[in-house]
């Protein structure tokens, strides 16, 4: 079974969405992330981490607000932002890392 560390340690760009099922802005992020995946395809992997089910991981990364989005490649955190983001904001952040 693939672990969180396995996923973020890959050479592929990984966007992690730390969310909670009870969080309204987190629910609003779902269609944005779906759109992002449609636009970027296999160039990025998007994973969602439920902070209530994976408290240890959320604590390890200091997640104090949801949604918190983090961008990783090869185990390194490249970017982090709390709060809902628009598709345009995410594309602007991700594009420099796609090369």
What does this structure look like?
It is built from 4 helices and 4 strands. The mean pLDDT is 97. By secondary structure, it is α+β, with helices and mostly antiparallel strands. The chain is globular, with a radius of gyration of 13 Å. A hairpin with a 2-residue loop joins strand 3 and strand 4. The chain has a 4-stranded mixed β-sheet.
Give the secondary structure arrangement, pairings included.
Blueprint: H1 4-8, E1 13-19, H2 24-40, E2 44-50, H3 55-60, E3 68-73, E4 76-82, H4 87-94
Parallel strand pairs: 1-2
Antiparallel strand pairs: 1-3, 3-4
Structural Rg: 13 Å
* Major β-sheet strand ordering: 2-1-3-4
Largest sheet at a glance? 4 strands, mixed
Please tell me the overall pLDDT: 97
The CATH superfamily is identified as Glutaredoxin
CATH architectural arrangement:
3-Layer(aba) Sandwich
Instruction: Give the termini distance in whole angstroms.
Output: 29 Å
Counted up, domains total: 1
| Class by alpha and beta content | alpha+beta
Q: What descriptive keywords fit this protein?
A:
99 residues, alpha+beta, Glutaredoxin, 4 strands, 36% helix
Can you summarize this structure?
The protein is α+β, with helices and mostly antiparallel strands and 99 residues long. Helix content is 36%, strand content 27%. Strand 3 (68-73) and strand 4 form a beta hairpin.
């Amino acid at each position: 079974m693939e672990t969180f560390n396995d996923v973020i340690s890959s050479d592929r760009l990984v966007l992690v969405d730390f969310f909670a099922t009870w969080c309204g802005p987190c629910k609003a992020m779902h269609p944005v992330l779906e759109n992002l995946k449609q636009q970027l395809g296999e160039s990025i992997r998007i994973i969602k981490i439920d902070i209530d089910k994976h408290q240890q991981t959320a604590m390890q990364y200091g997640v104090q607000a949801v949604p918190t989005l983090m961008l990783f490649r090869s185990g390194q955190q490249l970017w982090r932002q709390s709060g809902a983001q628009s598709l345009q904001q995410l594309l602007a952040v991700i594009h420099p890392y796609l090369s």
